[in-house]
Design brief:
Blueprint: H1 10-15, H2 21-33, E1 40-43, E2 49-53, E3 56-67, H3 69-73, E4 76-81, E5 87-92, H4 95-100, E6 108-116, H5 118-121, E7 124-127, E8 136-139, H6 141-148, E9 162-166, H7 173-186, H8 195-212, E10 225-227, H9 228-234, H10 238-249, H11 255-271, H12 273-288, H13 297-308, H14 315-329
Helix pairs in contact: 2-7, 2-8, 10-14, 11-14, 12-14, 13-14
Length: 331
Amino acid sequence: MAEVNKEVDNGGAEAIKGFNFQKANVILLAINNFQKNNFKIYVETEDDIVVSYENYKAYIQVKKQKHTFSSISKKESKKVQGDDGKKITRWSPSILEKNLSSGAASDIYKIIVKDIGSSDKKKLDLKKPGSICREVYKINDEARREIIQALPEKLRSKLENFYFYISPINDDLNEAVKYLIGCLSGINVSVDDNRGRIVIAELSLTIDQKAQEILYDGVDKEIKAMDTNYFSKVFVTYETLNQFDRVLNSLGYNEIISKRIRSERLKIELNLTDVKKDIKEALQEILDNDNFSDLSNLEIIGLIFKRFESLNLNRNTLIAVAVECLCEVEV
């Protein structure tokens, strides 16, 4: 049996420590796209965000400011001390150059911004919908002529696949959290009883962990990925929770115990997948045995509890996992 050593951080769900504009946009991209085939988000690899699914791949820079063509095309300078002790200027690639430097000519390139300068916005064409964003701005011929001169020649052809995305994420991060909770509700994810904030806290923590992973030669880039399987576990729907409540209510526990078991349900898909797999196999054995065909839900849960009580899990946690498994094998 796998050892369970991670728990949902309810305190983090209240504070959502370290939550910022980039994380909020990663979460928004996940909410809107996680059901696509082979969907993955990579954090802090070739770019701030890399999104892929099927034959699509996008490299994304995230900038929490209003930007213009000039600001994204301007090389950054820094005064440093040379070997001879004299000050020299070192130049870094522009935001746009960094964005276009990864990937292949067929890939997509985006810069997520808070807004675009009004005069430059007039030189952009609005596209609805984008592949992973509800709407994006593509540069027109006039804009391309302005921007292209600031780019190395080898990157100029990639402008054809370059877009701006104006993020709807609010500067006030409390408002940003509320917005994301609304988006979760919009895809039928349960956000009641503080679940919405817990989901965002879990995602925020995972994004931090992925960002901090360092890639060395030979290290698989997939350690930086979050995929459809992960997001599907985190985004628990009302339908799933209603089924869980229906089975739980059939057990006859009092309201206090039932509430505690429901709160443990939040941990199952995030932290107890190995335990769940073992319990589901044991449950299937019980249900396939004709001698147990007349058992009530409560009696079945009792058998599971006896078989797995040596795991040293909280009683309510173990019951929650058993109920969840019973929901999934009931059909």
